[in-house]
């Protein structure tokens, strides 16, 4: 799997409205988005020393993070994901989990992972044993996704970012969440070899610069 380019900008509500209009004019709404958007819930992993969080804050050049993710609280499709960063480029590896497997990991049952046929599950298990990775926090948010064929471009607008308070059961719909500080809105742009000028122009905002925003880091502000 090749690494992809990634831009992130923290924007305001006025920017969100502007970008939504521009992108609808030049790109397609992701076909997986009902009414143009969907809700994402992610369960992030870290160790007792906050290795993942510290590497993010310190801007470590080569880093990775694991998360379990589902969409619109639909348990028919649950992903284990590993996101890697190197020199500002990113890539994502995915393995599907069953409801029982996701519940087992969130509940502290890990032994079965060693016998999995999925390499990503085995890798997470190994790092849980070696590095002490454990489920740490839940992050919820709404996403409006757009796609553009040339360059394999994906543009997303993320908002209503909330974090769980000491809740790591990703399947618990009653998990209490609170807004991330500052109620951030995030523009993300990802592409392969090149970013077409039509998209580059559409996402340009005066006074906005790329920033290493992390939803996981935002979610850890409360602990």
From TrEMBL:
Domain VTC: 4-219
Any one Gene Ontology BP term: polyphosphate biosynthetic process
Listed InterPro entries: VTC_domain (IPR018966), VTC_sf (IPR042267)
Pfam families registered for this protein in UniProt: VTC
CDD domains per UniProt: PolyPPase_VTC_like
Protein name per its UniProtKB record: VTC domain-containing protein
């Amino acid at each position: 799997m090749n690494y992809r380019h990634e831009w992130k900008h923290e924007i305001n509500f006025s920017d969100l409205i502007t970008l939504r209009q521009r992108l609808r004019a030049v790109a397609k709404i992701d076909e997986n988005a009902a009414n143009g958007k969907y809700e994402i819930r992610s369960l992030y992993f870290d160790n007792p020393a906050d290795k993942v969080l510290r590497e993010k804050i310190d801007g470590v050049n080569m880093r990775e993070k694991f998360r379990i993710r589902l969409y619109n609280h639909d348990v028919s499709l649950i992903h284990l994901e590993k996101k890697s960063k190197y020199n500002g480029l990113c890539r994502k590896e995915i393995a599907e989990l069953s409801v029982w497997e996701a519940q087992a990991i969130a509940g502290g049952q890990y032994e079965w992972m060693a016998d999995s046929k999925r390499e990503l599950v085995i890798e997470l298990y190994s790092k849980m044993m070696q590095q002490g990775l454990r489920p740490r926090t839940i992050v919820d948010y709404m996403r409006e996704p757009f796609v553009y064929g040339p360059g394999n471009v994906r543009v997303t607008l993320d908002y209503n970012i909330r974090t769980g308070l000491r809740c790591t059961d990703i399947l618990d719909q009653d998990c209490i969440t609170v807004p991330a500080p500052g109620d951030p809105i995030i523009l993300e742009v990802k592409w392969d070899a090149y970013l077409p000028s039509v998209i580059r122009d559409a996402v340009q905002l005066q006074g906005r610069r790329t920033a290493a925003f992390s939803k996981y880091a935002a979610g850890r502000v409360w602990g």
